Amino acid sequence: MEVGLPRGTRDYSAGETIVLQGIMASIEDTFRRFGFSPIDTPGIELLETLNGKAYGEDAKKEIYVIEGKTDGLRYDFTVPLARHMAMKRDIPLPFKRYQIGKVWRMDEPQKMRAREFIQADVDVVGSNEPVSDAEIIGAVALSLEGAGVQEYKVIINSRTILDALMGAFGVPGGKRIEAIRALDKLEKIGREEVSGLLVGAGQDAEKAERMLDFVLEAGSNESRLDRLSKTVPESSGSIANIKEVLRIVGLYRIKGEVLVDFSLARGLDYYTGGVWEFCVYKDGKRLPSIASGGRYDRLMEMYSKNPVPAVGAAIGVSRVFEVVKAVELRNTYAKVHVSYIKRENQDYGIEIANAMRSAGIYTDLELTERALSKQLEYVNSMSIPYAIIVGNREKEEKKVKLRDMLTGEEEMLTVEEAVSRIKK
């Protein structure tokens, strides 16, 4: 039988998994330091939950439907959160939650885009204040920095600003979602194609070009927002909100530059206010976003009938892995390997391994009767920094021989001394 994997999925080797788990642990630690609480929801949701109006028609096509057509695999963590909140109405608000795990989308696989991938979501439910938007952006930014992403930009916009722009430049009311989605593709397909899509959405060709000129005009955040207030006066409330979010985000002292971009929309229909993406660049070209999110004040109402403001973001952990993964990967968490000479020293080797583990040191133990040289070859191949070697002399003296695998230096030490040396 020929073995293989479904399209859009992948295996992670031991070394890759260590890097991946390190990224997830770092992100989770940051979320916890921000006071977010974990929840866990099923990978399978009812199709009626997933097929609501939240995602939009295009996204609904990407939902994995399970045989029987009553259930599907979760597309993201946001709709499951809304369903969770509708079922547990006694949760104190505001509720700050996070969830890390796999999600699935019937998407066309390509670079940094898979059908099965890992996300880390963070949300605030029950606050419509700008500080809650800033708290999300700050938590995601510092999570990325902790995971090893040091150079990134935060692109920010507002769906209410986009809607006002559509009105100011003559997009028919019933076609605005279509036009907004077209504008969101500027980075990917370029101005000419987007112009054609806008005309296809019912916008006059001349007004489409004028809107694109407006959206693409360079300038600082302040100048762009000031220009917007003069062009689209009815967006003043959204402008004031985004200015306050920018001001508060500045207090978090994140490393990434925050840029206002009037073309950013985010594809999902549930966004109602501010939207943002975290982007990295390679060879001057923007890679697919490694994190994104926004405000979705009407999503909860779809499931509970009660309007509850909410804002959140998702980190694409699988994408972060592609950005930060080390060239040389560790193959094990073990920091020391206990090797023993001849079978009669096996019991003493187990005793030493247990002592190391009790001291909090990740310890591997030799499980074969191969020669010492072969054992040390294995230690090197697994990139374990230390080997403890025990033989007759070590057993008699109740000591160990500690070998630094990088320098080759060996020392005869007590168990306590070996623990102290390894921990340093």
Portion of residues within helices:
40-55%
Number of H- or I-type helical stretches: 18
Strand line-up across the major sheet: 1-4-5-12-11-8-6-7
CATH topology of the largest domain: BirA Bifunctional Protein, domain 2
Beta-strand segment tally: 17
End-to-end C-alpha gap: 49 Å
Q: In one word, what is the shape?
A: elongated
Low-confidence stretches: none
- The CATH class name of the largest domain reads Alpha Beta
**The CATH homology group name of the largest domain:** Bira Bifunctional Protein, Domain 2
As a percent range, the share of strand residues is 15-25%
Kindly name the structural category. Answer: alpha+beta
Task: Report mean pLDDT, rounded to a whole number.
Answer: 92
Q: Any idea how many domains? A: 2
Please write out the topology:
Layout (H helix, E strand, L loop, with lengths): L13 H20 L3 E2 L5 E3 H4 L6 H4 L10 E3 L4 H10 L7 E10 L11 E10 L4 H18 L5 E6 H10 L7 H8 L2 H4 L1 H10 L4 H12 L4 H11 L4 H15 L6 E4 L13 E6 L1 E2 L2 E2 L4 E5 L3 H6 L5 E7 H8 L11 E5 L5 H13 L4 E3 L6 H10 L4 E5 L1 H6 L2 E5 L5 E4 L1 H9 L1
Parallel strand pairs: 1-4, 6-7, 13-14, 13-15
Antiparallel strand pairs: 2-3, 4-5, 5-12, 6-8, 8-11, 9-10, 11-12, 15-16, 16-17
Helix pairs in contact: 1-5, 1-14, 5-12, 6-7, 7-9, 9-10
Could you give a short description of this structure?
The protein is α+β, with helices and mostly antiparallel strands and 424 residues long. The chain has 18 helices and 17 strands.
